[in-house]
Amino acid sequence: MTMPSGGRIRSPQDFMAGLSLIALAAFALWQSAELDAGTIGQMGPGMLPRALALLTGLCGVGIVAGSFFWQGPGLERWAIRAPLFILGSVVLFGLTVRPLGLAVAGPLCFMAGALAGTEGRLVETIVYSVVLTVACLGLFIGVLGLPIPVAPWLIGR
């Protein structure tokens, strides 16, 4: 997809990136609309998502505005591979974390996400997946004490 470079938009890639951030912020605001924001002194569950959505939207507006003033790269052909595998890895994690546990869902998610790129090597990806999964187990189970199943098929929790 190419956009003509003779228009008012001097950086089409930044323009589209800014619009994407604005759309993401609008989606987050819509999804967090029913959560109680609370007050500054007693924050509710909706405060952080809304604050992050607003900051993301403001960044998007800034990037869109900058695309009219600074010269930048044009749009190139969009590849579907990376978004497909990244989104697929998130869906795979969601489908496998409860029945198989984080010990299995983590490496599956990282390895599926690694397929988004074309430069990954199998051994490096496996090592990277195992190291990140151990780090996630340490953080989410050990430090934060979250009730995430580790390996219910092996240790029962």
From TrEMBL:
Transmembrane segments: 51-70, 82-106, 126-155
Pfam families reported for this sequence: TctB
Keyword set, alphabetical order: Membrane, Transmembrane, Transmembrane helix
Source superkingdom: Bacteria
Residues annotated as domain DUF1468: 16-149
Nucleotide-binding keyword on record: no
Protein name as catalogued: Putative tricarboxylic transport membrane protein
